[in-house]
Amino acid sequence: IAAVPLNDILLAEQRGDRLQVAINRPESRNALSLELLDRIGEVFTRFAANTTLKCAVLTATGDRCFAAGGDLKELAAVRSEADTLAMSRRARAALDAVRRFPVPVVAALNGHALGGGGELAMACDLRVAAPHAELGFLQARLNVTTAWGGGIDLLALLGPARGLALLLEARRIPSAEALQLGLLERVSGSQESLATCTDNFLAPLLQRPVQVLRAYKALTLETRRALHDRLTTVEERGFAATWTHADHWAAAELALTPRPTG
Predict the structure, then answer these.
(1) Side-by-side strand order, sheet with 18-23
(2) Could you please report the per-residue DSSP string of 90-114?
(3) Using alpha carbons only, how large is the chain's radius of gyration in Å?
(4) In this structure, is the dihedral angle defined by the CA atoms of residues 77, 83, 88 and 90, taken in order, positive or negative?
(5) What is the DSSP letter of 2?
(6) How far is CA 129 from the centre of its chain?
(7) Which residues partner with 10 through β-bridges?
(8) pTM of the predicted model, to two decimals?
(9) Whether the Cβ atoms of residue 108 and residue 59 lie closer than 8 Å to each other
(10) What is the per-residue pLDDT for 6?
(11) What is the distance between the alpha carbons of residues 182 and 204, in angstroms, rounded to a whole number?
(12) What would the mean pLDDT of 232-246 be, rounded to a whole number?
């Protein structure tokens, strides 16, 4: 991906009829800083006007993490209810730019998608993954709830009971189980790279005319938008109440405490 400097935190370029986007903070497990989230929103907003595109692929560099959630060190400064809501809405706007992209968006999970990274994966329309990748809606481990629409997307895909169970269990879901649950469309084989898996998955989709892809995406988007319009305030309210609670700060402090080595 060479449309922007290779040391940038987000890489993006058009490759024929595909928009290819990669998160590029491997040294930080591709944690979603607010700057990075803003950039994701900007890229998907800018390319939304490109009528030659048939799809977008969102992935990340490295092989450990697709995105390891929000940047806890940065977000530790967010304490008041007003600041919490502002942070939530800023990040949600970025994920909404992904959700509202006019053609299908495929998340290619090169590694773990955890916490906010799981929400970003769910903001995409479809998901493929490397065999070692795990999805994890781990927010409850920090005594908070989803903040960026990911809880809504999960409940919509799995139904209230199974979605609620996964949100409360807050566990890492191996790729094989995620495939069985319907959270993933495909997992790459042992002798197949993630890039090849993604290409093979996209091949039949890209045979469709762009107007067909856009029409079906518009139908999908309106279904999703109606649900988000109804539930966003509920999700925001729950997040603000849990983020500002002392139980969250105790868990966050523990998570940020360096662990002894050796």
Answers:
(1) 10-15, 18-23, 55-60, 105-109, 126-129, 186-187
(2) HHHHHHHHHHT-SS-EEEEESSEEE
(3) 18
(4) negative
(5) -
(6) 13
(7) 23
(8) 0.95
(9) yes
(10) 58
(11) 19
(12) 97
